[in-house]
Amino acid sequence: MPLSAQDVRKKFRRFRILVVGRANAGKTTLLQKVCNTTEKPEIFDGKGNKIDADVVKSSVNRGDHDINNELVFRSNPRFVFHDSCGFEAGGENEFKNMKQFVSERASTRNLNERIHAIWQAITSMRLYLIQLLITAFAVVPVIAVFTKFDALSAIALGELRRTPGLTREDIFERTPERVGEIFAGANIWGRLCETRHPPKNYVRLAKMNMDETDCGPLLECTTGALGDEALQMLLISTQQTNLELCITYAVKKGPGLH
Question: Are 4 and 258 spatial neighbours (Cβ–Cβ below 8 Å)?
Fold first, then answer.
């Protein structure tokens, strides 16, 4: 008999995600969208004790970030996020700590301490760095998240404005297509797929500062990447922003998701 949503919630209380990416990669905005809030997350240590956000920020600036700290939003406390920002601040030692964290949390017998997915926030096309990070996370599904995709829109607009014969309307109409061409031309995704441990999928996010923008594509990609039906049900029942995802999954899997 397939597990019901209630059975899944008894087995896994929360859905845990490691978010990897440099400072100013749009990670906080991304998580706020996922949890449907504009508030900052509360931060807890590995023992569940609340930590002052200013203390955490000061530690990060010193390169002394603890990846075990949990970021939780009041709007949806069933999502737990871990931030890798110590990698950028601390260098090689922090990177090793991050690899150890993934290895331990991917195999721990305590099901509620396991990480279920990794979101790799990418703001540049530095392929070697992306490959390095993703190779370290072979044991957990990785979604490559190209954040701040608006930057490519600016490039596309500049190119089209220099193209003779195009009207203002032509330029704005052709911009999305040109953005796709620029991204495809860089072949970042194609080369990532050739790595030993490629990410499961990728999403391109733009206009994340606008109220109407959501993270539906990211949640859909993550659900598909999980592979395990119980974890898929856990994510779908945890997220509260994408009703279409709930309906699609319910139709596909039949009764039980409620």
Answer: yes
Question: pLDDT tens across 9-41, in order?
Answer: 666 778 999 998 777 778 888 899 899 898 999
Distance CA 108, CA 110 (A): 5
Check whether 61 has a pLDDT greater than 50: no
Is residue 15 within 8 Å of 238, Cβ to Cβ? Answer: yes
Query: CA torsion sign, 173 to 148 to 37 to 235?
Result: positive
Return d(Cα 126, Cα 247) in angstroms, integer: 38
Confidence bin at 231 (pLDDT 50/70/90): confident
N residues, the chain: 258
Q: Which of 14, 77, 70 is nearest to 43 (CA)?
A: 70
Question: At 8, which amino acid appears?
Answer: V
CA 241 → CA 57, 72, 110, 224, 245, distances in Å? 29, 16, 28, 17, 9
* Tokens 């009703």 -> residue: 243
Structure tokens at 5: 């949503």
Residues 181-208: pLDDT tens digits? 888 887 878 877 877 778 888 888 877 7
Are 226 and 116 in contact by the 8 Å Cβ rule? The answer is yes
**Count of other CB atoms within 10 angstroms of residue 82:** 21
Tokens 């709930």 sit on residue: 246
CA angle 17, 134, 90 (to 5 degrees): 80
The DSSP secondary-structure symbol of 41 reads: P
How does 178-200 read in b/e, with b if 16+ C-beta sit within 10 Å?
A: bbeeebeeeebbeebeeeeebbb
Q: What are 201's strand-pairing partners?
A: 143
